[in-house]
Design a protein that fits this description.
This protein is α/β, with parallel strands linked by helices. It has three domains: about 160 residues, Rossmann fold (3-Layer(aba) Sandwich), CATH 3.40.50; about 80 residues, Helicase, Ruva Protein, domain 3 (Orthogonal Bundle); about 80 residues, no CATH class. The chain is built from 16 helices and nine strands. Helix 1 packs across helix 2, helix 12 crosses helix 16 and helix 13 crosses helix 14. The chain is flat.
Length: about 350
């Protein structure tokens, strides 16, 4: 988040388009607003548009406006969001849901800084800084033909990726304390404290809804609390039952944008488990097979195919290419190993 904050400050000093990516609830709109408020455009409008919440035909008019008589019922002309954001910032949330037709119109505005309102043949010039956001992988959408490649590169001039809450567990106590203050003040209550055991449970939960989910929970707890102390017993069952202590959690494995050699990664993992099982069993194939939940015949045949029978005879021998499975960086190193192949 320090990196994200530094990028927000740098991006504010420029007028190039920004593409904010991240899961739902990570704060994409707040980041866009922060960029606007730190920029020289702060005295002009910040205009948000949720591209997923408005049907295509309405979104066209919403973005670009329309002239009188453009369609049935258009008794008067109306400015679109681009014109309302003139001199300021237009925030296009859920840009990945925009239709191909509107993608073409948006590309033209970004390139030429002008557009025609619906029903008009006269171009309107605008000075708007566009910030787009999505929780989708637009590069995948480009490969699938669902998003224009030229528009993606036009939007992705200044990329900002916001991490999930589970990827920054250390922020959970800080956010919890802050949100307790905010909602206690809003509800007219005194400052609430939270037990260490309750905080530990919150740190162990995966937070699929990210910061938004955490804030909604804190607001609910503040409303229900009567004695200024939040205990682990106050937390809902779905949080408590799905909380895993941090030292029991494996690192999140993320697919690199350039992809990986999956077969190579799986081969490395399998070989690593086999070698460690043999080492732990002192070279005893029967015991090693039991550690891997395999029968001895299957295990020996697998060793033969992998040409690892010699390894099985070398009691205590350790391959330099294999890291301990208890190492927190194991899967990450396996990914790196697969990429290198």
């Amino acid at each position: 988040m320090r990196v994200a904050r530094a990028l927000i400050s740098k991006f504010a000093n420029d007028s190039s388009t920004v593409l904010i990516t991240g899961e739902s609830g990570t704060g994409k709109k707040l980041s866009a607003l922060a960029i606007h408020e730190l920029s020289s455009r702060r005295d002009h409008a910040f205009v948000p548009v949720n591209c997923a919440a408005i049907p295509e035909e309405l979104l066209d008019r919403e973005l670009f406006g329309h002239v009188r008589g453009a369609f049935t019922g258009a008794a008067n002309g109306r400015q679109g969001r681009f014109q309302r954001a003139n001199g300021g910032t237009l925030f296009l949330d859920e840009i990945g849901e925009m239709s191909p037709k509107l993608q073409i119109k948006l590309l033209r505005v970004l390139q030429e800084r002008q557009f025609e309102p619906v029903g008009s043949d006269h171009a309107v010039l605008v000075d708007v800084r566009v910030i787009a956001a999505t929780n989708r992988d637009l590069q995948v959408a480009v490969r699938e033909g669902k998003f224009r490649e030229d528009l993606f590169y036009r939007l992705n001039v200044l990329p900002l990726e916001l991490p999930s809450l589970r990827a920054r567990v250390g922020d959970i106590p800080l956010l919890t304390h802050y949100l307790l203050q905010v909602h206690a003040r809003r509800k007219g209550k005194g400052m609430l404290q939270i037990e260490a055991s309750a905080t530990a449970i919150l740190e162990g939960y995966s937070w699929p809804g990210n910061v938004r989910e955490l804030e909604n929970l804190i607001e609910r707890l503040v409303v229900l609390n009567d004695d200024a102390l939040l205990r682990s017993s106050d937390l809902p069952d779905y949080i408590v039952k799905n909380s895993v202590p941090p030292h029991h959690r494996s690192n999140e494995v993320r697919l690199p944008m350039e992809g990986v050699d999956l077969d190579g990664i799986l081969e490395n993992i399998e070989n690593g488990f086999i070698e460690q099982a043999l080492q732990r069993a002192g070279g005893n194939k029967t015991r090693a097979a039991e550690l891997l939940n395999l029968n001895r015949t299957t295990f020996v045949e697998r060793l033969r195919k992998k040409r690892m029978l010699q390894t099985a005879r070398a009691d205590g021998r350790r391959s330099k290419s294999v890291e301990k499975m208890t190492d927190q960086n194991f899967l990450g190193r396996m990914v790196e190993g697969g990429k290198a192949q």
